[in-house]
Specification:
By secondary structure, this protein is an all-alpha fold. The protein is built from 3 helices and no strands. The protein has a domain of 66 residues.
């Protein structure tokens, strides 16, 4: 049903809406659209916008890497220690009295 909407119903709906708009209003807005096409375009603003997006995505990637990558450690089996455990027990002090 989704493809039927995209191929048949949506184009006919757009055609119906365009026909319902009065011709004076349509002509006025077409003139405004043509005038908007002739406006100067700022290349600098476009470059700044793209740099902000790239920087934001890089920052988000770095933060995600720091959050998720450093918490993952290789699961290797631990070998039993061959040296005795020299940690003090709960009630022991060093140096002994």
């Amino acid at each position: 049903m989704g493809y039927l909407d995209d191929l048949i119903i949506v184009p006919f709906g757009i055609l119906l809406v365009v026909r319902l708009i009065p011709s004076e209003i349509m002509a006025e807005h077409r003139e405004l659209a043509e005038a908007a096409q002739e406006r100067p375009v700022s290349l600098t603003a476009g470059i700044v916008t793209v740099c902000i997006w790239v920087g934001s995505i890089a920052l988000l990637g770095w933060l995600a890497y720091r959050r998720f990558a450093f918490g993952v450690k290789a699961r290797t089996p631990r070998m039993p220690s061959l040296r005795p455990d020299f940690r003090l027990k709960r009630d022991e002090r060093w140096p002994p009295d």
